[in-house]
UniProtKB/TrEMBL annotation:
Coiled-coil stretches noted in the UniProt entry, renumbered to this chain: none
Protein name in UniProt: Acyl-homoserine-lactone synthase
Organism: Paracoccus haeundaensis
Keywords: Autoinducer synthesis, Quorum sensing, S-adenosyl-L-methionine, Transferase
Family: Belongs to the autoinducer synthase family.
Reactions accelerated catalytically: a fatty acyl-[ACP] + S-adenosyl-L-methionine = an N-acyl-L-homoserine lactone + S-methyl-5'-thioadenosine + holo-[ACP] + H(+)
EC number in record: 2.3.1.184
Record-level Gene Ontology MF annotations: N-acyl homoserine lactone synthase activity
Example GO biological process: quorum sensing
Superkingdom of source: Bacteria
Name of a matching Pfam family: Autoind_synth
Amino acid sequence: MVKMQPSRMFSDASRDGYQVEVIRCPEDLDRWHLVNEYLKLRKQIFVDRLEWPLFHAEDLEFEQYDSFNTIYVVATLNGLVVGGARLRRTDQISGTGQIQYSYMIRDACLGVLPGLPQELCHAIPPMNEKVWEITRMVVTGSRDVSRMILAKINTFLGEEGADTVLFLGSPAFQRMANSLSWPVKQLGPVASNSEGSFQVFECPVRELG
């Protein structure tokens, strides 16, 4: 694990009416309504606003990586969901049919996901209990919500014994990470499809204190 001095990014995630929670099944079924609201927010942003051709049912956007072993980090402002992200440990497998899925970045590189380019990474990403993946991060409102979500993810992954996390997102993530003195490594080129441009980054889990 990389040990660095904590930055302003890793501050208390609950302030000014904001709260960021880690939600998993089955332990947190009493708060699962927040996950549903996060899935609604994904549909509002990705499908309705950005017009990404993603599967959705009624007002929810979800897919095969939204399974029982997926963990969600959800941000609320006075009880209203304003952002969230999806976490998966990279050594897990889901699906019982002919095609089984590990995690989005790796499956894309293996050619399992026709909608994503295979050249996302220079090498096939690992399946390792010390490596996690962040995808479907969405935020509405203040840019500070992104920092609070990432701070909560960092704390959670540190408690889980993770070393690194892979992030699939906009190339702009590099600029935000640089502004926060958070070292990230690009694992592949900027790729594009009908949904826009994105890139894979590897980020160390940082010790606090």
